[in-house]
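Reopening this ticket.

The earlier resolution said the output was attached, but the attachment link was broken on my side. Pasting everything inline this time so it's all in one place.
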Amino acid sequence: MFISQAGLDLLQEALHHLGNGFSQLPPAEARLDLERLRPVLLEVAERMRDNYPYHHPLYAGQMLKPPHPLARLAYALAQFINPNNHALDGGRASSALEKEAVAEIAVMLGWKEHLGHLTSGGTLANLEALWIAGCLHPGKRILASSQAHYTHQRICGVLQIPYDALTVDAAARIDVTALEAELAKGDVGTVVATLGTSSVGAVDPLHQILPLAQRYGVRVHVDAAYGGYFRLSEGLNGQAAEAFAAVPGVDSLAIDPHKHGMQPYGCGCIVFRDPSVGRFYKHDSPYTYFSSHELHLGEISLECSRPGAAAVALWATQRLLPLERGGELGQRLDQSLQAARDLAAWLKARPQEWKLLYEPELDLVVWAPQGASASQISARSQEIFERAAELDLHLAVTQVSQGSIWPELNWDQPRLACLRSCLMKPEHLEWLPEICRRLEQAAG
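Inline output:
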């Protein structure tokens, strides 16, 4: 979990090298009163113990993936400079690293040209994409599936853009027939496709959406905040593989390096295929852009101050683990995929006890205990969730709506609470037998 003494020694070596870069300056070091700092820092450590063990393989709940050790070290190293990647005046070196890191992400998406930058997370990345969509198609609707992240509707409310959510099929993917019916009305400007929904991990059929969008002259934005790095995977199959293969044809994409990119929070990224959308960001700031005629990242971002340390950590991680299909990072993703498939197989082999609600397309698994009614199963799911936590197995609870799943169930309430695991750590594959053993114990 934590940086070892060897890691701290490496950080000290890097700090010494960094400090030598400013050795020509007269000494101006702050004096630390360690006697005053020590009790406060230890109190912080005590308070921070009140957390779930996100770093451990027995945490198999939400989309929380520990940063790579190198990302932690590089972030800490950069904090001694504390650069601001708004303008080159505040973060010259870290801005260059951000441009290089984002360019590597663009290549992963299949783009030679691009416009992009880091954000605080997927929400702001999606906001910028939908803002550009509104600029290009003012007054036109934005469509997404009912399984798309709730922030899309909220963002459209903020931007005052009309928004509609479409029905999904039995696999929780956007209904392509319903989509075409809406596109035929002629008032749609952008379709949002989700490659890895936060609720059940569904992958919208992008390979079917793109031809429709081209026929009706609408943009396609992809929300791949969770699933985007699976472009590196060699383990995808079926329609998920076709959807990810179609990514180079979209107009914009949001991805979260602080998920599968193993970065500290917050590190999101928005990338546009057409660099000319930068014209909508154009502005004049007479007090920040004076040290260079080069592009300042603040000129292509809605955010102003942004942590340069996030760019440094991402660049370092990608230097160690290049974004190459089938490379080390892709292999880690494939281990997570296999863990999800193995858990799904384990559940299906026990039909008297469990019901797998969706075949996992990525590394997220949704299932429920068997029961007589939706209300009974919902209560049982919550009970198992709490018992598992007592056994140091941390799952998540999500809700699905009545629809084409589980038609034989007595739906005495419109929504069903069920269990959910995002097996984002490659170590989950090795730990799966222990996870299943504790799950059985929690179920009694």
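Reporter confirms the inline version is readable. The radius of gyration is 23 Å. The domain at 92-320 is CATH 3.40.640.10 (Aspartate Aminotransferase; domain 2).
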